[in-house]
Amino acid sequence: MTSLRFVEQLRDLVGDVDVVLSDIWGVVHNGLESFPEACEALHNFRKQGGTVILITNAPRPADSVQRQLRKLGVADETYDAIVSSGDLTRHFVAAHPGQKIFWIGPERDSSIHRGLDATMVPLEQADYIICTGLFDDETESAEDYRDTLLKALERKLTLVCANPDIVVERGDRLIYCAGAVAELYRELGGEVIFYGKPHRPIYERAMALAAEHRGHPTERSRVLAIGDSVRTDLAGALGFGIDLLFVTRGIHSEQFEGIEQLDAASIKELFGHPPRALMRELKW
């Protein structure tokens, strides 16, 4: 590919698409408000027979994600199902009954433990760590956890990362996520298990949900992912063998400001391997 242009409308890309796997944060909302045109685009795709699975690195169960979407004004009709990294993390906990957990994350993520045999203990007593985020993502960064992670490393504890994102939008700011802490632990030599994009299990679960809704599996050539992160959305889609529509209004917005077309050198610098198309914000 020698150039990569912006497209204006989703409908121009989905003539040969049956299933859309859409990111949420940065595509459908920014953490404080929803994007009505994006919601309308996904709803219109569904109305013409398509299936929309929202695929998110939220460290909470799908029903908790749905409640947040409703509060932000995202109608249930926007999508068919939700799969979250929180769901996959819960499966890990359920598969390790009786083990004790040191939890790093804010209280708002407590639903990830709901209904599970999960005992929270101090680091010194833990069998493994679950990280859903920072205790205070308004003021902290991963470096605030270095001493804790060094102690965990001494005990050779595995860290389960329930949100591989490094940063995410909150309004017009970027805040740190669990992925930042997990990456630091990995740099220090710790063992990390990642659940969520760009890792394969979340895509496999999304495709299984799509098959349930459609009544049959869908060829990957007829699947389009939508996202705003090179590290998670683009890498995940490429690794799973599906195309991606890259939305530039999200965490990389400053890099695309004023750009109308990308040449080959810029594509390689920004993406490595290019997405199928660019769109500033999702519209039908």
Automatic annotation (TrEMBL):
<dbReference type="GO" id="GO:0005737">
    <property type="term" value="C:cytoplasm"/>
</dbReference>
<dbReference type="Pfam" id="PF13344">
    <property type="entry name" value="Hydrolase_6"/>
</dbReference>
<dbReference type="InterPro" id="IPR023214">
    <property type="entry name" value="HAD_sf"/>
</dbReference>
<protein>
    <submittedName>
        <fullName>HAD superfamily hydrolase (TIGR01459 family)</fullName>
    </submittedName>
</protein>
<dbReference type="Pfam" id="PF13242">
    <property type="entry name" value="Hydrolase_like"/>
</dbReference>
<dbReference type="InterPro" id="IPR036412">
    <property type="entry name" value="HAD-like_sf"/>
</dbReference>
<keyword id="KW-0378">Hydrolase</keyword>
<dbReference type="GO" id="GO:0016791">
    <property type="term" value="F:phosphatase activity"/>
</dbReference>
<dbReference type="InterPro" id="IPR006356">
    <property type="entry name" value="HAD-SF_hydro_IIA_hyp3"/>
</dbReference>
<dbReference type="InterPro" id="IPR006357">
    <property type="entry name" value="HAD-SF_hydro_IIA"/>
</dbReference>
